[in-house]
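Help needed: design a sequence for this.
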């Protein structure tokens, strides 16, 4: 089977991402990526050590699209954080199948590190102290990942919400009522509403 004379990390990552987008994360393997590149599996091992390295390359390829430029300092800190979080959400949501890989490989991604550095800078300027900044950064990352997973990989909208609304109301009065209320929620409204609640909590820990 023919193979290119050389293979860059971005080429390997793009092939792996194509496999994930088409076949899901379960379809990712060295063999599948080699086939995508029209090369033998053994030839791929000359450029990529193993699946773990492939995963890290994919995470960085996707997250390299995140703009980590600080929003204008003239804006309120929570608005600046909202902009940064929205950039991360929009970038990752374009390839939701990679979400399970992001917690494992985020510390190896220069793009995530740059985004995190910007977020921490904004939080520091808002007067949020050291330990609270750690908690805030991790909470924001967990919220983005969890919200995108819920929206794309396990949505309650549609049949899920209908199934919950159909539960016995005497046994699950709060769930059934909430499911009925949820029918009018859009994914964007749900995301922004949850982020607003999180940022309000952070605001209570900021300097006066």
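Sure. Designed sequence:
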């Amino acid at each position: 089977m023919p193979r290119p004379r050389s293979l860059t990390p971005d080429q390997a990552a793009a092939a792996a991402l194509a496999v994930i987008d088409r076949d899901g994360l379960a379809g990712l393997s060295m063999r599948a990526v080699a086939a995508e590149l029209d090369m033998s599996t053994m030839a791929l091992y000359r450029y990529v050590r193993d699946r773990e390295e492939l995963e890290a390359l994919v995470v960085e390829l996707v997250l390299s699209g995140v703009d980590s430029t600080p929003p204008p300092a003239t804006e309120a800190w929570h608005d600046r954080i909202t902009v940064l979080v929205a950039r991360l959400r929009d970038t990752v949501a374009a390839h939701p199948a990679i979400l399970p890989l992001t917690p494992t490989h985020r510390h190896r991604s220069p793009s995530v590190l740059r985004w995190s550095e910007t977020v921490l800078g904004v939080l520091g300027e808002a007067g949020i102290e050291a330990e609270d900044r750690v908690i805030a950064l991790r909470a924001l990352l967990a919220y983005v990942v969890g919200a995108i997973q819920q929206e794309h990989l396990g949505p309650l909208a549609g049949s899920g919400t209908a199934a919950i609304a159909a539960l016995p109301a005497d046994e699950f009065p709060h769930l059934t009522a909430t499911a009925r209320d949820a029918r009018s929620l859009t994914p964007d409204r749900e995301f922004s509403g949850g982020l607003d609640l999180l940022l309000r909590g952070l605001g209570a820990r900021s300097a006066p």
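The radius of gyration is 21 Å.
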